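Help needed: design a sequence for this.
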């Protein structure tokens, strides 16, 4: 029977390759609806996911408004604390650690807890130690360490050193510089 089909196709004058290519094309045409179905499912899933994400994001952010509302007269809004100031140290002159020494002129103010009589007494009693500390601290620095962009770091270091090494009961809360100049000699 297969011989009869082969002879019929040869008798009609069609080459053998045309029949097989028609089968391939008809097979692709049969796959096209299935392929389109999977593409449509993928697009539908993508649209669903994007929609859910957008809706969820807008609900969580409430259109960009903050979820926590703090009233303007809330007691939880911090205010800057007020400190008592100790300025009896005066102006200190020192030399830096550089090979070509720079002259450093420092006028420093120490801030401590407001109305702390013990701290005021201790700072006054240790005035000469504080002057020596300031002189030796700035003598151990290089001129580039004393630049204005390093001032915050310098203040923090001085606070830590005063609280741990110089003072016993008083706690330094703030350092201010009336003057901090480093000039080449």
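Sure. Designed sequence:
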């Amino acid at each position: 029977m297969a011989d009869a089909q082969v002879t019929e196709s040869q008798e009609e004058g069609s080459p053998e390759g045309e029949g097989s290519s028609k089968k391939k094309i008809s097979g692709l045409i049969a796959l096209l609806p299935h392929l389109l179905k999977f593409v449509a499912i993928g697009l539908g899933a993508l649209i669903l996911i994007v929609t859910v994400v957008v809706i969820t994001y807008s609900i969580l952010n409430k259109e960009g408004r903050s979820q926590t509302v703090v009233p303007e007269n809330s007691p939880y809004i911090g205010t800057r604390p007020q400190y008592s100031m100790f300025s009896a140290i005066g102006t200190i002159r020192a030399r830096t650690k550089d090979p070509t020494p720079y002259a450093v002129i420092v006028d420093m103010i120490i801030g401590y807890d407001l109305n702390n009589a013990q701290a005021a007494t201790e700072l006054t009693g240790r005035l000469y130690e504080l002057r020596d500390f300031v002189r030796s601290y700035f003598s151990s620095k290089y001129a580039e360490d004393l630049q204005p962009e390093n001032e915050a770091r310098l203040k923090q270091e001085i606070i830590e050193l005063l609280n741990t090494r110089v003072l016993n009961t008083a706690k330094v809360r703030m350092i201010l510089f009336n003057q901090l100049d480093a000039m080449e000699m």
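The CA atoms of residues 54 and 65 lie 16 Å apart.
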